[in-house]
């Protein structure tokens, strides 16, 4: 089987609705569960529709459900003997959540994918009511193992394992669920309906350790379990970490990052040269948050730094449509990679059957910022192999109210990198003291791209119609605080993204995050946006702030989509450099997905 030979035949007329993913990259990984039930559609076959919004270069199956905004499950990546594996929750029979199996795809480059038969599906008492999220770990002897949440005959959430039937098969086509499952069950005092998503295991001082997400009353919990042999697990007296008033912690991920440089480290790495990250997905907000801190392996305790907090006021890996993410260590290139779900916007039930769906974001390399106060992200280098027609712009001055079109590329399927230069920061708006307790998204909703400012708003108008009836702006706005410091807001605003009536259930938020950048030195800031029909992934200031938006234009589709640079601030901005590429489709994207 050659993973790279098949030419992608991108068709119109197949329904695709996405679910959770589990990525198998031998060494570490995870998954999650929360579901709306659409019984009338669970076995509905794919219907003929015009897939204007189907992505061109993001991971997806040709049809049916693989993860959505409320039907989300973590992915658990794994790399094994030269092959990347992605396991993801999938309904092979219909367009919405139901009949869930662990689908399985493989790749040599994280870009081209070939589908294999499902790896896991409900079949035994310990998972007869569901095979939900989980993670992959590579055990000594180069032996992969999957931990996953099963829903047993009593509908308890319990933790099971599966192993390859043939370790010598490079594609690991068949997996076995031994009869000595489950490995971990909730104790009597625990909530058995809030106990899921085992993490990739790490090893220290003679014991394996995993986390399982949970909730005790309204306190989010990262339950800690230890094992000597990966078979018999004992719950620690205390969770690794917990936080009040945060609700259910789904899809936990716990991993180290090097204090210096961008190289990744194995999940079991501890020491003074690394900092640990604990990421959780909050079921109550449907957003993800993380803290950076110190892991004390001898005490099995994790203490967040005083620069990061738990819960809704905390740091986020992505400030947009992004949930149930998972990292894994890729030993072949010595990097840690993050994958997450770009969840679909709210849509009416009938739209579920038309392919309104979540997609997998482009894999991102992650590392620590130089001050070790946040995670930085950037799309994997392999994505650049899809770049096609290229256009450049340099030293382009953009005055207030101007829209400069970037021509010569396929604006609906593009990769854009731009650096803006600011002549002066003197005209920056005062940051209203009344906003002190507001999050960035609320501030963006008050100061959208059409609200004139001093320094900004300036940025890109993506997926724009010719006359700007529709557009998704990705932009910066610079404020001045009462301490005379500058505060940079980055927005990806879906409010104007579609002409669909507002009485339809279409989520059009003003996603935003503040950017930790000092503009006083060179007065420059960069932006990269990956545009793919209904997905806009944006990376501000070299990946310090990331925002993913799902949008559904009606006019700005395919060849009718346009891309503009804009400025709506009184201070002129200069496009110092801009390079944009048309993006080709992968040669192969799961064409052989037939069950």
TrEMBL record:
* Residue ranges occupied by any Glycosyl hydrolase family 32 C-terminal domain in the UniProt entry: 382-582
Q: Which SUPFAM superfamilies does the entry link to?
A: Arabinanase/levansucrase/invertase (SSF75005), Concanavalin A-like lectins/glucanases (SSF49899)
Gene3D superfamilies per record = Exo-inulinase, domain 1, Glycosyl hydrolase domain, family 43
- Give the matching Pfam families: Glyco_hydro_32C, Glyco_hydro_32N
Alphabetized, the UniProt keywords read: Glycosidase, Hydrolase
Q: Is Hydrolase one of the keywords UniProt gives this record?
A: yes
Q: Where is the Glycosyl hydrolase family 32 N-terminal domain?
A: 58-379
Does the record bear Hydrolase in its keywords?
Answer: yes
Note the superkingdom of the native organism. Eukaryota
* Entry similarity comment: Belongs to the glycosyl hydrolase 32 family.
Under what name is this protein listed? Beta-fructofuranosidase, insoluble isoenzyme 3-like
User: Species name for this entry?
Assistant: Prunus mume (Japanese apricot)
Q: Which gene encodes it?
A: LOC103341883
């Amino acid at each position: 089987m050659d993973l790279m030979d098949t030419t992608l035949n991108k068709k119109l007329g197949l329904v695709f609705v996405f679910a959770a993913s589990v990525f198998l990259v031998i060494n570490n990984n995870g998954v999650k569960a929360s579901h709306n039930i659409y019984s009338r559609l669970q076995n509905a076959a794919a219907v003929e529709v015009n897939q204007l919004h189907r992505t061109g270069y993001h991971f997806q199956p040709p049809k049916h459900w693989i993860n959505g905004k409320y039907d989300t499950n973590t992915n658990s990546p794994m790399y094994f003997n030269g092959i990347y594996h992605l396991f993801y929750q999938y309904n092979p029979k219909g367009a919405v959540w139901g009949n869930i199996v662990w689908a399985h795809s493989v790749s040599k480059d994280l870009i081209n994918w070939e589908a294999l038969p499902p790896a896991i599906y409900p079949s035994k008492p310990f998972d007869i009511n569901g095979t939900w999220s989980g993670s992959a770990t590579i055990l000594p002897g180069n032996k992969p193992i999957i931990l996953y949440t099963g829903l047993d005959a009593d509908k308890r959430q319990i933790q099971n394992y599966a192993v390859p039937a043939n370790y010598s098969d490079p594609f690991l086509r068949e997996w076995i669920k031994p009869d000595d499952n489950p490995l971990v069950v909730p104790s009597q005092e625990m909530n058995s309906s809030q106990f899921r998503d085992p993490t990739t295991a790490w090893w220290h001082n003679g014991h394996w350790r995993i986390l399982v997400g949970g909730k005790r009353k309204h306190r989010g919990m990262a339950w800690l379990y230890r094992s000597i042999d990966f078979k018999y697990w004992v719950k620690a007296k205390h969770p690794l970490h917990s936080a009040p008033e945060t609700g259910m912690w789904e899809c936990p991920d716990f991993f180290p990052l090097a204090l210096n440089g961008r190289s990744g480290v194995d999940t079991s790495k501890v020491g003074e040269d690394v900092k640990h990250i604990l990421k959780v997905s909050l079921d109550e907000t449907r957003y993800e948050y993380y803290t950076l801190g110190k892991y004390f392996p001898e005490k099995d305790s994790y203490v967040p730094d005083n620069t990061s907090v738990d819960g809704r006021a905390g740091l986020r890996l992505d400030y947009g449509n992004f949930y149930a993410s998972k990292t894994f260590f890729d030993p072949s290139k010595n990097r840690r990679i993050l994958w997450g779900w770009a969840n679909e916007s709210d849509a009416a039930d009938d739209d579920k059957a038309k392919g309104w769906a979540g997609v997998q974001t482009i894999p991102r390399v992650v590392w620590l910022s130089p001050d070790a106060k946040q995670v930085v992200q950037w799309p994997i280098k392999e994505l650049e192999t899809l770049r096609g027609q290229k256009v450049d712009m340099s030293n382009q001055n953009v005055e207030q109210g101007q829209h400069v079109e970037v021509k010569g590329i396929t604006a609906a399927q593009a990769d854009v990198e731009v650096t803006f230069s600011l002549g002066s920061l003197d005209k920056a708006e005062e940051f209203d003291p009344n906003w002190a307790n507001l999050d960035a998204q609320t501030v963006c909703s008050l100061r959208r791209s059409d609200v004139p400012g001093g320094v900004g708003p300036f940025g890109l108008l993506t997926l724009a119609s010719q006359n700007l009836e529709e557009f998704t702006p990705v932009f910066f706005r610079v404020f001045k605080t009462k301490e005379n410091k500058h505060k940079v807001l980055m927005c990806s605003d879906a409010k104007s993204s579609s002409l669909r009536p507002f009485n339809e259930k279409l989520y059009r938020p003003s996603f935003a995050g503040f950017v930790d950048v000092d503009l006083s030195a060179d007065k420059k800031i960069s932006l990269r946006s990956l545009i793919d029909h209904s997905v806009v992934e944006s990376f501000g200031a070299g990946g310090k702030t990331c925002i993913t938006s799902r949008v559904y234009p009606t006019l700005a589709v395919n060849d009718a989509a346009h891309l503009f640079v804009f400025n709506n601030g009184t201070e002129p901005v200069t496009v110092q450099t801009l390079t944009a590429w048309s993006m080709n489709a992968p040669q192969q994207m799961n064409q052989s997905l037939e069950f």
